[in-house]
Amino acid sequence: MAGDDVKLLGSWASPFSERVQVGLKLKGVSYNFADLDISPGKPKSPELLLYNPAYKKIPVLLHHGQPIAESLVILEFVDDQWAGEGPSLLPKDPYQRALARFWAKFFDDKCILPLWMSLWTEGEKQKGLMAEAKANLSIIEGELEGKKFFGGEEIGFVDIAVICILYWIDVVQEAVGVSVLDSERHPAACRWMKDLLGAGGAVNGLLPPREKLRAYFEGNKEGFRARMNALYG
Ligand SMILES: N[C@@H](CCC(=O)N[C@@H](CS)C(=O)NCC(=O)O)C(=O)O
């Protein structure tokens, strides 16, 4: 807020960086955005290596020059630092708070890699990853049953964590010509995603335009395929 010095090292093309941007925007916090080029083959920025030597990954938030890394950790920091500004991202009740952290962690640990790697693999390997993604995402979907948002009536921590990734998966699957996320396999997630992104939705207009993102991944698809298989294949 006024007097705060907030800088985000990120990339417009990163869903993890986007989680932080959505959190800051919902809270109404002004920030400077350093849009780093994380395309495959590009050297890492010295600023990133300086502030996140442990993981060497974006996003990194600098608050008065103090670095914080890891998107979920940053989101929690944003919620605490600007408590009282905009909506609370995490529930106040300790048990509900713990549950929100649990589901965000489960999504990160069990859903992201099989969803993402389904896009960059083929044959039996891809089939196995798709089955794993479907099984784990169905568990997450169970959490949405009878609710508008993961957080209940208002958008919260888990919604932000999940929407950024699923939006990317939805766009990138189009760019690479693979289908891993659809309303037949994941009806609750697709319904929830449509509500959030559509006219009047809580993140409508906050995420990068679909066409821009699709073109970026389409243009870099061979580089991403090689890099993802080298890292996780
Ligand atoms: N667990 C991390 C993941 C961050 C991450 O994977 N960042 C990617 C961009 S999407 C990155 O920095 N990639 C650059 C690289 O690995 O060289 C978080 O939640 O912040």
TrEMBL record:
Top class in the EC scheme: transferase
Coiled coil segments of this chain: none
Domain GST C-terminal: 93-217
EC number: 2.5.1.18
Annotated keywords: Transferase
GO biological process: glutathione metabolic process
Catalytic activity: RX + glutathione = an S-substituted glutathione + a halide anion + H(+)
SUPFAM superfamilies tied to this protein: GST C-terminal domain-like (SSF47616), Thioredoxin-like (SSF52833)
PROSITE patterns, alphabetized: GST_CTER, GST_NTER
GO cellular component: cytoplasm
MF terms in GO: glutathione transferase activity
Domain GST N-terminal: 4-86
Protein name: glutathione transferase
Organism: Apostasia shenzhenica
